[in-house]
C-alpha cells in the first residue's frame, strides 16, 4: 500500500499544474485514504492477532513424530506377535487327518510304539496331511503346473486303480523324503503300525510302491 500512496503522490506533483482542480482534489483525497489504510494495517500488525496461528517449532514437531513412530512400532510388534501365536496354535489339519489323542495313544501296545512318542507320531500325521493337501491341489491345477509337477500328477494317475479313485492317498516314499534322516527308520518300523492301529491310515501296494490311504478326512 505504501507504494500505491507514493505513486499517487508522484502523479499529483507531476500533473498538478495541468490538471483540473477537481481531479487534484480527488487525487489528494485518495492519497490520504491510502495513508489511512497503511496506518490501519500497521495497527493490526502491532495487535499480534494472528500469533496463535504460528505453526509449532521444529523441536516440538520432532518430538511428536518420535512419539508417533514409537506407537507405530509397538503396534507392529503386537500384530506380529498375534500372527505368530495364531499360526503355531492352529492344529486343525488341512486335509482332515486329525492327530492321535492321548487316550488313543494309551491303547497302542508298547511293542507297536517302540520308542516313539506321541508328538513324533503326530508329526508324521501332520506331514501326511500336508502331502495329501498338496496332491489334491496339484490335481486340481494340472493345466497350470510346470512340466515336472505335471509329470508327478501323471505318475499318481498311473497308480490310481479303481479302488483308489475318490480316496485320499500318497506314496510312502513321499513321506520319508520329508522326514529327517533320524526319523525315517522309526516311521517305517513303528510309525506306520501306530497309524494303522489307530485307523488313521490304510496301507496297500501297487507296482512295487507302498501307498498310504487316509481313513479319517473330511
Write the layout of secondary structure elements.
Layout: H1 2-15, H2 21-47, H3 58-89, H4 102-106, H5 110-113, H6 118-140, H7 147-159, E1 169-171, H8 172-178, H9 181-197, E2 201-206, E3 209-214
Antiparallel strand pairs: 1-3, 2-3
Helix pairs in contact: 1-2
Tell me what you see in this structure.
- It contains nine helices and three strands.
- It is mainly alpha-helical.
- It has a three-stranded antiparallel beta sheet.
- Helix 1 runs antiparallel to helix 2.
Average predicted confidence as pLDDT: 79
Strand content: 5-15%
Total tally of structural domains? 2
Broad shape: rod-shaped
Question: Secondary-structure element sequence?
Answer: HHHHHHHEHHEE
Count the E strands. Answer: 3
- Assign the CATH class of the largest domain: Mainly Alpha
Q: Which fold does the CATH topology of the largest domain refer to?
A: Arc Repressor Mutant, subunit A
Return the CATH architecture of the largest domain: Orthogonal Bundle
Helix proportion range: 55-70%
Q: CATH homologous superfamily of the largest domain - what is it?
A: Ska1 microtubule binding domain-like
Q: If you compute it from the alpha carbons, what radius of gyration comes out, rounded to the nearest whole angstrom?
A: 44 Å
Structural class: mainly alpha
**Adjacency order of strands in the biggest sheet:** 1-3-2
Poorly predicted regions are: 76-90
**Helix tally?**
9
Distance between the termini: 86 Å
Q: What is the makeup of the main sheet?
A: 3 strands, antiparallel
